[in-house]
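Bug: C-alpha cell stream looks shifted between consecutive jobs. Job 1:
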Amino acid sequence: MPGVSMLTAGLKSEPMIPRPILLPLLLSIVIHAMSASAQDKGSVDAKPLPPLANPSDPKIGAKELFARKLLPAAMPTKVLGSYVKGCIAGAEQMPITGNTWQVMRLSRNRYWGHPDTIALLKRLSVKAHRDAGWPGILIGDIAQPRGGPALTGHASHQIGLDADIWLTPMPDHLLSREEREEMSAVMMVREDRLDIDPKVFTPGHVLVLRDAAQEPGVQRIFVNPAIKKALCREAKGDRSWLAKIRPWYGHDYHFHIRMACPPGASECKGQPDQGGGEGCGAKDLAYWFKDKILHPEPPKEPPKPRTGPTLAQLPAACKQVLNAPDAKQQHRDRDGVLIPSQLPLK
C-alpha cells in the first residue's frame, strides 16, 4: 500500500505493468508501532527493547533476534541469502554526517551496509551536489548492523545492499539530532496519485535518479509509479538508465536503491537483470494507475501481526553471524556507551 516499503520483489519480479551530533544510544532502539517509512518519526529518547524470555525458542521471529544486535559481527564481510531473507557479516557503518550527506532517523540504527553500498552512497551524494545543485542527500534506512529481518517497515533491507534516499534535498545546514528524528520528507506525488507535484519535483530530481541508475553496481531503483511516469516524460539523451527505474508501491517520499550481489559473493541470492527496455510504454505503466491500485479497498479485518521468518528459515550461516562477537569499537560517548569510531563526539 502507499507509504509502505514491503518489497517482495526480492523473491519475484515486480510488475512491469560543524556542530557535532550526539549518537543515539547504542543500547537503545525505538519500538515503532507503524512501518518505518520516511514519515515515521524517531526518538531522541529511545527505549531499550526488553530482553527475550527465551531467545533460543525456535519459533521466535528472527526479527526479534537481529533487532537486538546493536553492532556488526566481528567477521569478514559476507552477504548471505536474499534481499528479503538473509543477513550480512562484517557490515560497515555509514558515517552519519559528510560534506554532502546526512543520515536520518538515527534511533533506528539502520545505517549499516555492505562496503560497496556505503561507497555508492558517498559517490551519489557528491554527484547530487555537482549535477543537481543539491547541498547533498538525506539517507534513510540501509540495514541493521547484522542485517536480517527488521521489527518494522521493510521486508527487504536484509543484506546491506538496499538503501533508501529521501527525495527531499539535504538542507544547507547541519541538522540537529531532533531534526533528524522528527523532520518529515516532502511528498513528491500529486494528491490524485496520477503524476508528480511540479511544485516540489524538479529537474534536479531527474538528475539525481539518473546518476543513481547509471551506477554499474545498481540493479534496481524503486520509485512511485507517478515518478516513473515523470522520468519517462522528462529524460533526455541516453535513456537506457530508465530500465533500472521500477514502479512500486509507496516510494513517494524516497527512492530505494538495490545493488546487485557483489562479485564473488556466492552465497548472495540476487535478482535477474532488467529486461523489457525503458519500461515507459503505456502498457508498462497501465497496471499502476488502475483505480483498484491507486485506491485499494481497506481490508475487511485488520491484518494479523506477522512473526516473519525464524532463524532456521534464514541461511544457515546467519546463525553464526547472529552469535558472533561484536565488532571492536574505539570510542565511548560521555555516558560511557560504545560508539562507532566514525561518529563525532559531543
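Job 2, same session, no restart:
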Amino acid sequence: MSGAVRIALCAVAASCEIDARADGVKATAQRPAAHLRVDSTVGDLLAHPAFAGFGRLLLPWDDRRYDTTMRLRDIGALLPYHSHVVPAVVVSSLDRMIDDVTAGRRVFLDFYSAAEVEAEPSRRNAGLFFFRGKPGAPFAIIAPGGGFAYVGSVHEGFPIADAISKRGFNAFVLKYRAGRGGRVAMEDLAAALTYVFRNAEALGVATTDYSLWGGSAGARMAASIASHGAARFGGAALPRPAAVVMLYTGHVDVGASEPPTFVAVGEDDGIAPPAVMERRVAMLRRAGTDVAYRRYPNVGHGFGLGVGTSAEGWIEDAVAFWAKHANRRERVERD
C-alpha cells in the first residue's frame, strides 16, 4: 500500500481521527458566500453554470419535468421514501460541488461511452459524481436509494460523499437508471466500479481497500456486487471490497463469502423493518463475517446522515469500520 493510502487510513483510524465536523465548519467559514441557499429554487439549481450538461442528474427522477419554482427547503417532497431530509445539509453538499468546479475540478463523470449510450439511450441517465479526498487514497462508491423508482442523491448520496471525503477518502456517488428495476441498476453499479478501476490513475484513487455503500435499494445493489462480484452484472472481474456499508434495507441474500459489513437502521422504519436486516446480520455472523450493527431509536426509513436524530454520527463509525478492515488487510498482506 502506498504512503498516501496509509496517510488516508491513518486520518480515520481511532488514534488520529479527524474532527470532520470542525473541518466542515471551518470550510464553510472560509467560503465567501453560499452559491445556493435553502430559499434558492430547483430552477436555480438546474441553471447553475457549474452543473451545465448534467444538472438534471442531480435530482431524483429520470426524465421528469420539475417545478422550477420549488424552493430547495422543500426538496424532501421529491423523496417520498426518505425521511429526516435537512435542506441545509443538501445545499451544503451541492455548494461543495460548485466549489470544486470553480476550482477547476471535474465533478461529473460519464462512465458509459458515447457508443454505449447510442446502443442503449437510457444510459444517458447514469453517471458518477466525484468528491475528492486525499490523492491516492482508497475510494467509496455510494448508491443512494429510492425504491429503484428514483435516486435520492441530494439527501443520501452527496452529503455522505462529502462527509467521507472530509475524512481523507475519495468518494463517488452513483446516479443509476431509475424506473428500470434492480438488475439494470446493478449493471450500472458494476459498470461504474469497472470504470473507476480502469481509470484509477487518472482519477488519483487507489483501487486497494475500496468500499461499497448504499441506502435502501442502493444497499441491495452494494451488497449484491459485494456478494457476487461485478462480473455477474456485466462488469469486469474485480477484487471484492474491503468493507460494505448498508443502510436500512430488506436485503437478505448472502453469498458464499462476504466482506466485512457495517449496518445501520432506524427502529421506526416501516419500509424496511429492522427485523429483516437483523436476519441478514445473524446469517453473516454465523458465517464468520465481521459485522457492526447499529439500531437507532425514533428514526424512520431513509435518514441519510441522520442530522438532528439519534442516528447522527453513524458516518464516523462506518468510516472507522472501513479503515479498520483496510488496515487489517494491509497487515495480513505485509505479514
